[in-house]
Amino acid sequence: MPLSLPHPISVYFSISNGADIATIKHCFTADAVVIDEGKIHRGHAAIEAWQRAVQAAFDYSVEPIQVLTKGNRVTVTSNVVGNFPGSPVVLKHAFGLVGDKINTLEIV
């Protein structure tokens, strides 16, 4: 049974699983910050470039398996399977929401 995720987070995972990366501006605020592997990606262009680089480097799929919501913070635990070293892995995606968009995302 699929999890019930806030719309922008659902869009984010759709993009992670192959949907059009250009739609990333529809789920992130203009000044959003993504932290992944210790690197910071700020704003639509940087976040889009980060997604394109990750998707170019590896074939993978992300399956959310648990969601915890506390106010505007949503933490999604996901199984990530692909052709990268260490696959499969379980990652936590910690989202901060502002209105109907993602303002922060930290992947650990």
TrEMBL record:
Database matches in InterPro entries: NTF2-like_dom_sf, SnoaL-like
Domain named SnoaL-like: residues: 12-91
Pfam families, sorted: SnoaL_2
Origin organism lineage: Bacteria, Pseudomonadati, Pseudomonadota, Gammaproteobacteria, Enterobacterales
The species this protein was found in: Kosakonia calanthes
Stated name of the protein: Nuclear transport factor 2 family protein
